[in-house]
Write a structure and sequence with these properties.
By secondary structure, the chain is of the alpha+beta class. The protein folds into two domains: 2-94; 113-349, Bira Bifunctional Protein, Domain 2 (BirA Bifunctional Protein, domain 2, 2-Layer Sandwich), CATH 3.30.930. Helices cover 39% and strands 19% of the residues. It has helices spanning 5-21, 25-36, 42-48, 55-94, 113-126, 141-144, 183-191, 233-248, 303-308, 325-333, 346-349, and strands at residues 131-132, 138-140, 163-164, 175-177, 197-206, 218-229, 254-259, 264-273, 292-301, 316-324. A hairpin with a 4-residue loop joins strand 7 (254-259) and strand 8 (264-273). The protein binds adenosine-5'-[phenylalaninyl-phosphate].
């Protein structure tokens, strides 16, 4: 062994003995600074002194010093690992870590009941050959009202029924949160140069509404539209019967009433028997004592609207409907108040 290796061997012994005395992370850190510290660690100073060794001993001294550096760094890693293992073993014996405990289950979210209902409704129509289309929630007044033959003085345009969007310039009653999905009838026909048309259009709608058990200010609708040669009222009724049976089963009662919507002629409403009172309670707050809960408006598309899109109304006819999805959800699960859906109460929402 060259003469210069002796002082290195003495240093190695001293360093390893003091490392074996270290009992915790803090004293190991002190050791690291003392021996390997960047500016004044003892080994660092030794390495810096290689260049000052006599020329004939420099190579051997340098090699020995570098071997010592690797030895100390390896010993340091081993020491830290043994402290880590000892800490884990202590946790196990002191009962702080019980590896036999089952893991914590990951909480999984779920679809909102209205979204589930909307998807089930869309599936029911997909089985009857309807395709899904989507339109904007922020809508032009001309699509929401004018194109649907809702005139300027119609109460639906009132400040209290419609949520208007303020724009920097222009008519303050030009842009709104759509009050129904009906403007999509127009949007679909604009994009379809020739019938047949058979679509359903889901989406949120907004109305300045006094809320109660069956009315919310934000509601979800599904618009349906079918235009082709020979489409008749009986096709509309058959489609809606089929939909109601898929959603509610064969035992629920269905009723059609005559109704008025400017964009259809004739117009109807469809209602399902009240699951709360079955028509036996004149004070029922869900059906208002009528025994029926209305779920949709419908009718034969007005010939003027058919003509507007270049279709020949003497050749093609159409039907349309607008379903209230929250009402369908109320009926299928027997929920007595629509306001539960958007009150953000997880105890309610987790049931679906
Ligand atoms: C309409 O919105 C028409 N656009 C429907 C239509 C389409 C008729 C195509 C003819 C042809 P109405 O305002 O009645 O109509 O709403 C339709 C359905 O949406 C209602 O039957 C009801 O189920 C639901 N609905 C209406 N207002 C509310 C509300 N405030 N909260 C919850 N659901 C509502």
């Amino acid at each position: 062994m060259p003469a210069a290796a002796d002082p290195l061997e003495a240093l190695r012994e001293e360093a390893l003995i003091s490392l074996s005395d270290a009992r915790d992370d803090a004293s190991v850190e002190l050791w690291r600074n003392h021996w390997l510290g960047r500016s004044d660690g003892r080994l660092t100073i030794l390495l810096r002194s290689i260049k000052d060794q006599p020329a004939d001993q420099r190579a051997a001294f340098g090699a020995g010093a570098n071997v010592l550096k690797v030895t100390l760094e390896t010993a340091l890693e081993e020491k830290l690992e043994s402290l880590r293992q000892a800490a884990l073993a202590r946790l196990g014996t002191e009962g702080a870590l019980d590896v036999t405990l089952p893991g914590r289950p990951q909480l999984r979210g779920r679809l909102h009941p209205v979204t589930q209902t909307m998807r089930d409704c869309l599936d029911a129509f997909a089985q009857m050959g309807f395709r899904v289309f989507e339109g904007p929630e922020v809508e032009w007044s001309k699509y929401n009202f004018d194109a649907a033959r809702i005139p300027e003085d119609h109460p639906a345009r009132d400040m209290w029924d419609t949520i208007w969007i303020d724009t920097a310039a222009g008519d303050p009653r030009e842009i709104l949160l759509r009050t129904h999905t009906t403007p999509n009838q127009i949007r679909v026909m604009e994009r379809t140069p020739e019938p047949p048309v058979r679509v359903v259009v889901p989406g949120k709608c907004y109305r300045h509404e006094a809320t109660d058990a069956t009315h919310e200010w934000m509601l979800t609708q599904i618009e349906g539209l079918a235009v082709d040669e020979g489409v008749r009222m009986s096709d509309l009724k058959g489609t809606l019967y089929q939909f109601a049976q898929t959603m509610f089963g064969r035992d629920r009662k269905i009723i059609f009433h005559h109704s008025y919507f400017p964009f259809v002629e004739p117009g109807i409403e469809m209602a399902i028997d009240c699951f709360i009172c079955r028509g036996n309670d004149s004070k029922c707050h869900t059906c208002h004592g009528t025994g029926w809960i209305e779920i949709l408006g419908a009718g034969m598309v007005h010939p003027e609207i058919i003509e507007c899109h270049g279709y020949d109304s003497s050749r093609v006819t159409g039907f349309a409907f607008g379903i209230g999805v929250e009402r369908v959800a109320l009926l299928r699960w027997g929920i007595d108040d629509i306001r539960h859906f958007y009150s953000n109460d997880l105890r309610f929402l987790r049931q679906f």
